[in-house]
Every structure is written in C-alpha cells, then in structure tokens.
Amino acid sequence: MEAVLVSVSTGVMKPLLAKLSKLLEQEYGRIKGVHHQIAFLRDELGGMKAALETLADAEQLDALKEEWRDMVRELAYDVEDCIDVGVDHEHDEEEEEPTATGFIKGFFRKFKKLKARRELAGQIQQLKSRATEASERHKRYNFVDPAPNSSTCAIDPRLPALYEDVDKLVGIHGPREHIIEWFSRKEHDEDLKVLAVVGSGGLGKTTLANQVYRQLKPQFQCSAFVSVSRNPHIKMVFRQILTELGVTDYSLDDERHLVDRIRDYLGDKRYFIVVDDVWDADTWKAISLALFNNRCGSKVITTTRNVAVASLCSSDGGYVYRMGALSFSDSRRLLFKRAFGSEEVCYPHLEEVSREILEKCGGLPLAIVTISSLLAGQHAQDEWGRVLTAIGCSLAKDPDAVNMTKILSLSYSDLPHHLRACLLYLSVFPEDSRINKQRLISRWIAEGFAHQEQGRSAYETCESYFNDLINRSLIQPVDVVYGQAEACQVHDIVHDFITCKAAEENFVTSINDAECGHISGYRVRRLSVSNHSEEAILSTSLMLSHVRSLTIFRGFMPKSLLAFPTLRVLDLGECWRLEDHHIANIEKLFLLKYLRLGMYLHLGQSRITELPRKIGQLRYLETLDIQGTRIIELPSTITNLQRLVRLYVHHRTRFPDGIIGKLQNLEELHEFGVSSYKQGNSLQEFGQLTKLRTLKVAWSINVECSAQGRSQDEDLQSYVGTLIASRNLRHLYILSAHGTAPAPYHILSLESWCPTTPCSLQKLHLTYGYVDKVPNWMSSLGNLRELNINIFSMRPEDVAIIGAIPTLLVLQLRTFYGTDGSIVISGFTSLKYFYLENKVCGTWLEFEAGSMPKLEHLKLEFAVHKMGSLNGPSDFGIQHLSALTRVEVIIHGDSDGSYRVAADKAASLIETAVGTLPSRPTLSLLHECDPFLHILENTAGLDDTDEEEEEEGEEEEEEEGIVVLF
C-alpha cells in the first residue's frame, strides 16, 4: 500500500502527485511534448497542495478562497481520472489472448494504443491549461496570509450551560445524585477523587458538572470551575485556576512557576475543581500536575468527549461516568417546557409531530433545546411540521440553531484530517443505519483513507480510526462483542451535520426522494442513492461520469453501469431486484477496488446466481463481497484477481479445485464452507497463502461412524492443526455452518496440532466440535488474545493450562460432561471477558482471591438442577473479582418449576456477592425454563433421581418463558 492519503481538504492530491511522478518514469513521459506537461502539472499541483493544507485548518474561508479551493480539488480529481482511465486502457488491450490472426490484431492494438496516447496528451494539455488558470488566480488572490485557525468562538457555546436555571433542567437530578453519592463514599476518603464525565457534544456534560459543582462547592475550602478550549494555552488555564481560587499575587509567565504557585496554595486545603471540556491527553497531563493528592479529601471533575481521555483522567482509582441520552419522557418534558413554559401542557394535534421531532433529536438535550427555541409559542401543526422538515442542512443555517452547529463543528475541527474523511464518509449511509464495521473499513481502504503504518495492515489501521471515532463520541458502538463494536450508528443530529458538511465539500452527494430534482449540476464524486427509481436518478442534472463511489439503498439498479466509468467503489448490497444481467459488463469498470453484491441477512433480495467469467479483468479489485448472493460456485478466472485482499462468500459457495493457493495477496476469507471431505482437502491450500491473516471456516461435515469416516476426520483435523501452526495467520474461526451447537460425539484431539514454530495467532474459535482435553502447548501461544472453545469433559488441568496464557483477554468455554465437583480458578492475569456455559455436567468453577484481577465482564450460564452436586447453590466466589463492571447470569431450570427454589437461592447468593464489590458492576439475572433439560441429562448419562426425590412435595410454580430476577 502506498503511503498516501485521500482527505476532505486535499481530495486525491497526495496520491495524484505520486502517480504523476511515476508516469514521468514510464513510456508516457517520453512522448514528445507530454513529458514537459506532466512535469508542469506535478510541480504546479505540488505547490497548490501546500496551499490546500493551509486552508484546511481554517474554520471559515472567504468566498474567493473557498472557490479557489474547490477549483483545485476538482482539478486533482479530474487529473487522476484522466491518468487512471487513459493509462490502464492500454494495459487492458495488452492482456487479450493471442489468436490466429494475431498479426492483424496486433497492428490494430498498436494503432489504438497510439490513438489513446494522443487523446491522453490532448487531455493533459487541457488539464495543464486549467492548472495554469488556478495558479494565476492564486497569485491574484494573494493567498500569502495564513488561514485563521481559531480555537475559540466569538461566544463560547458552553457558556449558557454555566448559567442555566436549575428549574429549567430536565433529567439532571438522577445523574447529579449519582455523582454526589460516589464522591460521598467513605473508603479512602482522604485521597483525591477524580471523576470524568464523558459523552458526545450536546449531551449536557457541562450542565451536569456545573450542577454538582454548585451543590458541593460550600463543603470545600476553595474551588474553581475552568473551561478548556480545543487548542488551549496551558498558561492561560493555570492563570484561570489561580483567579478562580482567589489568588491574585502572581505575575508569572513560566508554566512551571504557575504550577508551583497552584500547588503551594492548595497545599493543605480541601479543594474542589472542575476542568470542563478536556480535548486531549496532553492537556490533562499538564493540568493534572497542579492538582495533586494532598490527602485532604479533595475532589476533581473533568468533562470530555473522548473516552480515552476520560480513562486517563480517572486512571488512579477514579471513576468514569458515561453521560447518557435523555429518556423519551424526559425529552418530551424538556421540549414542551422550553416551547410553552410548562411540561404538563398537552396539545393533541401536536402529539404525532412532536414524537417525530423527539425521535430525530434522539435524547440529545442541546438538539431539543435548540428546536424548542424555534417552536416557542407556536401552536400551529403546520409550523411544527415545517421545523421537522427543516431538521438537517436547513436547520444548521438557522440563526437560532447556531449554537448547536458550533458545538458539532468543534468536534469536527478537532479531528485530524484522516478522521474527518472517515467521519464525513458515514453520510453515505442513510439515517438510522446499522453500519457494519467490516464493510465500512473495506470501503475506507478502497477510497484511500488509510495511510501506511509500520507493521500494521490497512485494515488494522482503519480499525483504529473506527475505534477513535467511537472514543470521541462521534459514532455510537453497536453489537459490542468482547468489548469490540461490530457495527456503529450515527446520531440523527450528527448525521444531519456530516451530510451537510459532505455536500458543502462535494465529498459525498446523497439523494433521496425528498431531494430529487433540487440538486444543481456539478461533478459528483461519491453518490449515495436511497428510495429511488432509475428514472429519478437520471432525471437530475448531476454529472455522473466522474462518480468514484456508488451505493444504492432500497432503490433500483440503473440499466447500465457503463454510465459510471471511473467507479472505484460499487456497493449494491441493498439494491432491489439485482439480477445477473445488471453485472454483465462489470469488467468494464476496471478501476473497481470494492464490489459488494447482495446483503448477507437478506439472501432473497439479490437474484445474482453467478459472477461473469470476465470478472478476472478487474485487476485492481481488493474486496469482493458476495455473501448475500445465490452464487454457488466461483469462476476459475477469479485467480486473475491478484490484488484481491478480502473475499467474503456464503458457506454454500464452492471454490474450483486448486484456486485458493493462487490468490497470493489474500489476507481475509469469510466463510469457506467445508461440507464434504473433498472440500476439507482444500484446507491444505491455505498454507500457500503467506499473507493470509483471517480465515473463517463454516463446518458442516457429518462424521461417518466407519473406518473410512474416522480416517477422513483425522485427515481434516490434521489440516486444521496445520492452520493453527501457520506462521502468519492471526485470526482463525472454525465454526458450525448453521450456528448450532456441535454434536457431543464430534470429538477433536488437539495434541498433535502443536505448532513447531512461533505462531502469530491472536484469535482462535474452535466450536465445530468438542475437544477431548486442552493440550499443554496451548499455554505457549504467546500472542493469543481471544479463545472460544468447547471442552467435552472439563478438568482442573484444562483450566490451569488456559489460565497460563499470559496475553488472553477473552475466554469462552462450553463444557458438555464432567465429574461432579468444583475447580478452583487461579491465574488468568490479563483476562477481561469470561463466559462459561455448563448446562449438563456438575463440574463448576470457584474463583479464588486474586484470580482474574482484570476481569470486567463475567457471563455464567448453568443448570440449577446440578447445584446439588455442589452442596447446594453457590455464589462461585464472585466477590473476589474486584474489577468487574458487568455480570450476566442465566439460570436454567425445567419447565415445571421444580427447581425454582434452588434458582432463587442461587440468584440471591450471586446478587449478594456482586453487591459487595467496590466496582459496583451492573447485574443481569435471568431464569430460563428449559423443557429439554432432562433430555440433555439423559444424553450425558446422568442420574438425577436423588434430586427429583428432594424436590417432591415442593409447590409447583406455573411459570414459563423467561423470568427476570432482581
């Protein structure tokens, strides 16, 4: 991957300059007259790139600079399209197969090649003229003065929160009392306590901190409330602290002396200081030097939009309070209170439109307050409907909404340039979309947003971008598994903001039914279409020949893709009635890097049954996603896709023999189906892929109870063992194809899988069978972070081996059978997530003091009818897991309620144990009535006669389904 970056501010300027330099070294650079023109373009655009980067840091541009910026950025896009299309058409012709009339065809190819070069020369001449005009305008406009980069607004948008009347606030009481209660705890009361409030802009962090400050301030000897700007002058912050503390006898300009003066004053005083709106870690590190632990019971509150900063602020025994959105009822109270002066007012004709407005606001107090100011005193339903319609770009331009826009702009301006591109790109997806991380990152890579980092793949780099946007509270994590979000959503108000911003920058153009016909004619670079027919798209005055990215949601496919010759990204996952003929000429889109056909969860939506044989001509394709199609077999020509990095298929899709080993650049493959011995043999080919990092295998073979069947199973298991021993593979998933639990007779032996060389495996999921025992070599997997495994008969030594893996963060264990009794757990020094499912056997775990010291999330699922083998219900030693933040317990009982008393007792013991933990974890207790429990017992060969006799005479409870226990 080239060390270049596509951004909002400079467009494709950086990769373009690299391409121009490369072009000068090739044959095109030796064409008469062309060399000079290409060199001129490179030099002129290089200078313009520097000017664009300067303008990018300005929060506002005057009209002349904005026009020039747009002109140069569009020129760069056009130059790149010219080079990519012109140069690569030549390669396309050269790759045709020789024929009997090769001499004649060769002559015509050379003639076409010469013609193409002349056309390219003519286009470069036109582009040179445009570059000359841009250069002359730059001189006329005299862009020598640096663009203003203000870190403060004319009026600080946080200011109103500091003077808000408490009577006007809604939903603040609970959070305020929660924070005060935490500060009031007696343990280590003399130590400095730091609490960080984290959440997105507009949630009310400043308001909450100010309300706590007002209530607690009288209890302290001195106090201060300071606000930090996005690009703060630390000396000014220190002076503000001193002023708030009432210190006036200082005239120091040196940061060190200012810190010393603050520390001297606070020396033996009980102080309370609020540091509002901390943007980065370096700022907090500097400020915290002055706020030392004087062991007088002092308190500090920080507010931030960044989760990483909040964790840093509270790292030394502190607490992170995550600010949540208002409930719907509180949101309604706030809206009517601000609009009409009373939260009790009721206007039936406004109920529906007010509900829609509140859904749009999504519990964001700032959005509700802003919109209520537009509705103040308005009783007409039409006026409320107008405001609802205006939410979005129109609202952003309303003078009454300027404060909300400023606060969102602060978050956007604080982003580095690569994250600005990633954030605005989310406007491609319609409002309220659940955006899959894998899909999003693959598209970011195809668009060129990932910059090269030593020792990291492009996917890993973009995954860090994804997590950074979550930490900055700009996107909301969805489907969180093991602490990692599998998808994200964008708050409606934020979505409106980035949609407007992306349109202003001509970065993304979004069309829906409401906007059709209202979009002026200009060159579209990235097009997102929702709820449209083909006629609606083509009826707009948009210029589509330069579209680089096309995404269709809930719309119909255009009759021909040839209207989009410069496409790099084509996403038709949600396109209605997608059929084979729609992609018949897909090879003509030879610049494609990302292709998605069909949505995995809606197989019936796509009617694609085969890929064209000429798909192999897409020489730049990096990601191919056909999971949501009906394709049964891949064409053999897929081996020509030598740049293919990510391949996503359905487990029913077959691979031709010998094809896998030829995809030498493949890094990720989901889901390779193994439903026969022949397909399983293909697992050997993965050893030839030296760049493969992630492999997901969907297993659906039924092992035959015969000598041949057992022999074949041993072969397949040995192939899997070879994968584990692979030097480069990092993530290996071998799962049941249908997501169901494996049969208990499918036993895996891992002893012979021992890696002979150090392996890089970080994630290992083996859930297509039950292992007979955990092999000793597993403790030597020095990079393993995540393990998901089924153990047929769990023994103490199995747990001990796993507990010795030093890097393990996530562990999922399921056991089918075992001897009655308990296993004492020790070790697991790094583990953060632990899930144990034990529905049948009587073996259980007991957490001893000091075990799993970093465990944050514990999930237990067990059958209460086996508690008798443990001398009755137990709390399993949960009280020893001091770092827990979340506990989930699912207790299975049979449908006749025979074990409800034991379930209640177990729940009570667990609840008591959790309640003693200083970390105050959240607790979820469920009792599931399982009618198949006795069947599972019989399968395991267990005898529960004694237990049934113990339960005789107990009153039966007629409860079915799921019962929540608190």
From TrEMBL:
Domain NB-ARC: 177-340
Compositional bias segments (type: Acidic residues): 943-966
Domain of life according to the entry: Eukaryota
Domain (Disease resistance protein winged helix): residue spans on this chain: 428-498
Residue ranges crossing the lipid bilayer per the database entry: none
GO BP: any one term: innate immune response-activating signaling pathway
Domain Disease resistance N-terminal: 12-85
Gene Ontology molecular function, alphabetical: ADP binding
Domain Disease resistance R13L4/SHOC-2-like LRR: 546-923
One family name in Pfam for this protein: Rx_N
Keywords noted in UniProt: Coiled coil, Leucine-rich repeat, Nucleotide-binding, Plant defense, Repeat
Record keyword Plastid present: no
Annotated region described as Disordered, given as residue ranges: 939-966
InterPro entries: Apaf_helical (IPR042197), Disease_R_plants (IPR044974), LRR_dom_sf (IPR032675), LRR_R13L4/SHOC2-like (IPR055414), NB-ARC (IPR002182), P-loop_NTPase (IPR027417), RX-like_CC (IPR038005), Rx_N (IPR041118)
DNA-binding listed as a keyword: no
CDD domains, A to Z: RX-CC_like
Family in the record: Belongs to the disease resistance NB-LRR family.
PANTHER family: DISEASE RESISTANCE PROTEIN RP, OS08G0174800 PROTEIN
Protein's UniProt name: AAA+ ATPase domain-containing protein
UniProt source species: Triticum aestivum
